[in-house]
Specification:
514 residues; 8% helix
């Protein structure tokens, strides 16, 4: 059952409301992407029941500020690229109060405020995350330092402003150029310093996080999703794994929940292969330990490990996720503290996304199997001939919406192992735990590892849920390439004589593993 349902169309506009989950109720605190924290504990229970669905509807509708199709066509894949400008490039703003900073662009002969945020970092590059049990918010100084980042969406940049033009009330302004290394296009933004606290321009966020009792509810411009929750006894620990996902009609979707859940499955063989211990995401302990919501992007740091029989802990792994508008950028770090070769014979890992019955009718494509397959819960003869070579990208697309994914494995992982891709569209082939029985369009990255040495191993995942990507005749490969160019060929940031590649569209470490 979804948590977000469509109502009947009224006056040619689609409205939404939050659907209460069976056996759940809202937590008293809710955190919005613009940093607003609402304390609902003082609201009477009866009043809360009346207001909460309406509050969700207002929050959702307030975020529906989308550019037209022509604007997206103008920007192509770069429409989805978040940009981060390091403080070291913005010398006139250094040492100033963060709440005095803002970003403008020059469009149509006038200044336009740009949705932006400042991500603080420590001198060693660790992001400052102010929420969660392992928050390091005490390290914030509220000042803009060389390692800090001003973040905004590339699509909000504009023309080069006339010399001498400065927004009203601004004390300092830093012209910042963005150069597309593929198309040669140039655009500009203008980070500024106000003499006093910057005005609240009331710009709708493109990334919103809300805490509810059963975990995190996240909304972006093209989709909403609910995260999987780990339960240990009476404790509920939120994770960042997708448990339900709906692509909004405004983005070319149907608002149906198309994802069953993200699955981590595998087995470890001990003592020369004599003992085999299977595991899945349900035996993984831990979850999100620190996070930072923002109007442009949300940063999360997770710490997790599998717990085997007799309470034996498996290798610890960390997930750093950056969710910005339509992009999800995740770095998974597997930490092996000692050489397990004498104990572990080999380890098989599978990272998959299983779909729901609502996803039937969509099509699956990847870079190796570009002919595509109809997702219908039944494996036909062509699907049984699926080429398992490790793909460069994969996607699902249909009237329900589109999801694009690219995963890269640390070469050290494969020094004594191999990777492959699998696809299973067999509704009769169950792999619990799952919300819907059977595999429906389930695509997986598989690793078989032997002789894993001590150290840290990385897996990087780039994901995008774009607007209006679906075409009945087949995927738009040109737009797909432009989207994949975001991490491969990032925008170049130019401030005076300084140049830097944009890291805003690449998976990266959020917190240093402890």
């Amino acid at each position: 059952m979804g948590w977000y349902t469509r109502e009947d169309e009224l006056n040619n506009s689609t409205k939404y409301k939050a659907a209460k989950q069976p056996g759940t109720k809202s937590r008293e605190r809710s955190v919005l992407g613009n940093g607003v924290c609402l304390d609902l504990g003082k609201i009477k229970k009866s009043l809360r029941r009346a207001i909460f669905p309406l509050a969700i509807s207002v929050w959702v509708l307030s975020g529906l500020a989308y550019a037209g199709a022509s604007e997206r066509e103008k920007w192509g894949g770069r429409y989805y690229e978040p940009v981060e400008v390091p403080g070291e490039m913005l010398a006139p703003l250094l040492g100033q109060k963060i709440n005095h900073l803002a970003v403008f662009s020059w469009q149509g002969g006038e200044w336009k405020p740009v949705l932006s945020q400042v991500d603080e970092r420590t001198p060693t590059g660790q992001f400052i995350l102010t929420r969660g049990p392992e928050s390091n918010g005490g390290l914030s100084n509220g000042l803009f330092d060389p390692q800090d980042l001003i973040v905004f969406m590339a699509r909000d940049s504009g023309e080069k402003a006339p010399a001498g033009k400065i927004p009203e009330g601004v004390d300092r302004i830093v012209p910042t150029e963005l150069a597309n290394p593929v198309s040669g296009r140039h655009s500009w933004v203008y980070p500024v310093l106000f003499k006093t606290e910057a005005p609240n321009f009331h710009l709708p966020p493109v990334s919103d996080l809300r805490e509810i009792e059963e975990g995190f509810f996240l909304k972006f411009t093209t989709y909403v999703y609910r995260a999987l929750v780990n339960e240990r006894g009476k404790a509920k620990i939120p994770t960042i794994f997708i448990n339900q996902l709906q692509i909004l009609p405004e983005a070319g979707g149907t608002a149906d929940n198309i994802i069953d859940r993200q699955k981590i499955r595998g087995a470890i063989r001990f003592l020369g292969g004599l003992i085999k211990v299977p595991f899945n995401e349900s035996i993984v302990s831990g979850g999100v330990v620190a996070y930072q919501p923002g109007p442009v992007r949300i940063l999360t740091h997770s710490s997790m490990y599998p717990v085997f029989p007799l309470g034996i802990k498996g290798p610890k792994f960390f997930l750093d996720s950056i969710m910005a508008d339509t992009l999800t950028l995740t770095t998974t770090i597997v930490a092996v503290p000692f050489d397990p070769g004498y104990l572990i014979h080999d380890m098989a890992l599978s990272f998959s996304t299983d779909l729901t019955p609502a996803a039937k009718g969509m099509r699956f494509y990847d870079s190796v199997n570009q002919q595509g397959y109809l997702i219908d819960g039944r494996m036909d003869e062509n699907e049984k001939k699926f080429d398992t070579g490790k793909e460069d990208w994969r996607l699902i697309t249909g009237p329900q919406g589109t999801q694009i994914q690219k995963t890269s494995f640390d070469p050290k992982f494969l020094a004594k192992g191999k990777s492959s891709s699998t696809y299973n569209d067999d509704e009769g082939d169950s792999h619990p735990p799952e919300n819907f029985p059977g595999d429906i369009g389930s695509a997986a990255d598989q690793l078989v590892i032997k002789g894993l040495s001590s150290g840290s191993y990385r897996i990087e995942t780039f994901g995008c849920i774009p607007y209006d990507f679906y075409r009945p005749e087949g995927p738009n490969l040109k737009l797909l390439k432009e989207i994949l160019d975001i991490p491969a060929y990032p925008l170049v940031i130019i401030v005076g004589e300084k140049k830097a590649g944009n890291l805003g569209g690449r998976p990266r470490d959020v917190a240093t593993p402890q």
